[in-house]
Design goal:
It is a single chain. The strands form 7 sheets. An 8-stranded parallel beta barrel has the order 3-4-6-9-10-11-12-13, surrounded by 6 helices. It has a 5-stranded parallel beta sheet with strand order 16-15-14-17-28. It is built from 24 helices and 28 strands. The relative contact order is 0.09. Helices cover 33% and strands 18% of the residues.
Length: 668
């Protein structure tokens, strides 16, 4: 497909970009001391080499009190040398690079900055659960100057421009919002006063760096917090910023504390592009759209239809740094598309760890990985065509080995087929599609409906056998009486192999149980198509439509023996799943064990010893899995080399399966 709009050049403040793809600022936490290091340089060099038009580095803290954990710093000259190396490395390509000027404001945590955070007003912060100190006028002037000094420093170390972050709930956003700015002086009150800090920063930077050095402002298109700024406010502010010679507006979603998902899989691809579209209609300078844009075709649509002039592809380039080059040369099927899992990026970052990618083992490891082609090509048999088996086969074939995959099912994908069914996880299928395409590219022989046995394997005479036979649901640890009916595994529900009745009990409140329960309850509400039809034709009142979206005709109960549900769900998505459970009226019985299941229903016992019978139409079991690896024991010692990989070793997350498969392929 010819993506002519996405790969047309664009100019931002006199700086020419080769295409409309931007990599926004992401804090990868690769620096422990605020300095640029070899890891960061290698990481960004790979993205620049992948053909992205613009990379924004950061956030780069402009002040000591505006730092966050493991963030880059740009508030004194001691950091200059590293930034010079970074910009020089990126400039070996055609990619341009900006620095994001960052001050966390009230979002700074006292234990990370060694002092009380500062903000426009002393209002308890819902993100940090701390109360910042109200800034004095002197401190405000000092903060304004810190942005200016950092911008001048950015120019000196080789950046092509700067971006000022005025979004997400950080210092500038706090000044802009009536929710967090309760000042009664010239920096608070009406919108003109609340904008004063940002406008002073811009005018100061422009005076310091000159007219030809581009300035971008990153705005929340809608704060998505009660009493915050709306999209109409963002439009008016963008118009004002254009008047004061800002060169582009980068539009993102809401604040970190918003209860509306900002980047999880529940948000449709390009779901917040409409925020950028409203701003683009009101101004002439370039507008960049953000949030969940991981598909080049969707990006092309956004640019072609005039929704925005550019698109941010952040996690998309974490997953595949070569995305722009592959899209430009019509190799879209070779793109390892972000699946919006949040596990390697958001979950790790929010827990204080460095960022990686669940589906791209190389992300963040570019500086240390040394791939050497094997001296001898081996004949390798992979038993199992799930995520681990396919990933190993791809990487081994890429190294020059002759690889065959046997899969006993009629399709590839393994557990990933089921993982892609819950709400917000539909894009997990992209990983399967990518892996299948790459198996074809590297001429891996695929045999479906082929169940491996010891005799077949020995007859095949491989040099290496990799057992990737995955896992299977464990047996129920409680009695299921002979008269019990309609008991199914969660896998069967997710695969669409059965239709549970109106009253459902899901046994097991882990990730699989919670997501299956949400899916089942959601089936009893309005579909997306029904909702769109009713709203387009004004067939029902908005309040009634919202009521139908939240009231399920299916009664779902989760029974969990621990004291909470969803405890194994990542921190970035757990709150969203639990919010869905609440919205859909799903009953959660925690600290509760199943005694038995019979025709009378599910007998449960609570922590205080009380027993209760739950009358149900269908029981769904989501109580865990066990590895399938007996075959490895059968052929051990009969084949030169036998390895286990993925869930065949131990049931776990996709990230570990990808990692194990990659490392094994590099070792053989």
């Amino acid at each position: 497909m010819n993506l002519k709009y996405l790969f047309s050049p664009i100019t931002i403040g006199g700086i020419s970009l080769t295409n409309r793809i931007a990599m926004p600022s992401l804090n990868h936490a690769y620096s422990t001391d605020g300095h640029v290091n070899d890891r960061l340089i290698a990481y960004y060099k790979a993205r620049a080499g992948g053909g992205v038009g613009l990379i924004t580095i950061g956030g780069c803290a402009v002040h000591e009190l505006g730092r966050s954990l493991r963030i880059l710093c740009l508030y004194d000259d001691s950091y200059n040398a590293g930034f010079c190396k970074l910009t020089a490395a990126i400039h070996q390509t055609e990619t341009k690079v900006f620095a994001q000027l960052y001050h966390a404001g009230g979002y700074a945590k006292s234990k990370e900055i060694g002092a009380q955070a500062v903000a426009p007003s002393a209002i308890a912060n819902r993100y940090t659960r701390e109360t910042p100190k109200e800034m004095t006028l002197l401190e405000i002037k000092e903060a304004e100057a810190s942005f200016v000094n950092a911008a001048l420093r950015a120019k000196r170390v080789g950046f092509d421009g700067v971006e000022i972050i005025g979004s997400a709930g950080y210092l500038i956003a706090e000044f802009l919002s009536p929710l967090t700015n309760r000042r009664t002086d010239q920096y608070g009150g009406n919108c003109e006063n609340r904008e004063r800090f940002l406008l002073n920063v811009i005018s100061g930077i422009r005076a310091a760096v000159g007219e030809k050095f581009p300035i971008i402002v990153r705005l929340s298109g809608n704060d998505f917090v009660k009493a915050g700024n709306t999209n109409a406010d963002a439009v008016r502010l963008a118009q004002r910023l254009e008047e004061v010679t800002v060169d582009a507006i980068n539009v993102t979603g809401g604040w970190h504390e918003s209860k509306i998902p900002q980047a999880t899989g529940e948000l449709p691809s390009g779901g917040y592009a409409y925020l950028a579209a409203r701003i683009k209609k009101a101004i002439q300078i370039p507008v960049i759209a953000s949030n969940r844009i991981n598909d080049p075709i969707e990006a092309e649509r956004i640019v072609a239809l005039g929704v925005a002039d550019m698109v941010n592809m952040g996690r998309a380039l974490l997953a595949d740094p070569e995305l722009p080059n592959k899209a430009r040369t019509d190799r879209i099927k070779e793109i390892r598309r972000c699946i919006a899992c949040g596990q390697g990026c958001f979950d790790r970052r929010f827990s204080g760890q460095d960022v990686c990618c669940m589906i791209n083992y190389q992300a963040g490891r570019e500086w240390e990985l040394n791939r050497n082609l094997p001296k001898i090509s081996k004949k390798i048999l992979v038993v199992g065509g799930g995520v681990a088996g396919m990933e190993f086969a791809i990487r081994a074939a890429e190294q020059g080995h002759k690889v065959t995959v046997w899969e006993k099912a009629a399709q590839l994908g393994g557990q990933l087929v089921y993982a892609a069914k819950p709400i917000g996880k539909q894009e997990f299928r992209y990983l399967t599609e990518y892996q299948i395409h790459m198996l074809t590219k590297y001429h891996v022989s695929i045999e479906l409906s082929q169940e491996a046995t010891q005799e077949k394997i020995l007859a095949f005479q491989p040099d290496v056998v990799v057992i990737a036979t995955g896992s299977t649901p464990i047996s129920a640890p409680f009695p299921i009486l002979p008269d019990a009916t309609d008991i199914v595994q969660a896998q069967s529900v997710l695969a669409g192999e059965c239709m549970p009745g109106q009253r459902v009990v899901v046994v097991g409140g882990g990730a699989v149980g919670c997501e299956t329960a949400v899916l089942l309850a959601d089936q009893g509400t309005l579909s997306a198509e029904q909702t769109k039809f009713l709203m387009r034709h004004n067939a029902e009142r908005d309040e009634f439509i919202h009521e139908l979206l939240r009231q399920s005709t299916r009664q779902v109960t989760i029974v969990e023996m621990r004291n909470d549900v969803g405890m194994d769900i990542g921190i970035s998505t757990r709150w969203g799943v639990k919010q869905q459970i609440q919205q859909l009226g799903i009953t959660c019985m925690t600290d509760t064990q199943v005694v038995d299941i019979s025709s009378a229903g599910v007998c449960v016992q609570t922590a205080d010893g009380n027993r209760k019978n739950l009358v149900v139409d269908t029981v769904v079991l989501a109580i865990g899995s066990r590895s399938c690896n007996q075959l490895a024991q059968e052929i051990a010692g009969k084949i030169p080399a036998v390895y286990l990989v993925g869930d065949a070793v131990e049931p776990g997350k996709i990230a570990r399966c990808i990692q194990d498969a990659y490392e094994l392929a590099m070792k053989i």
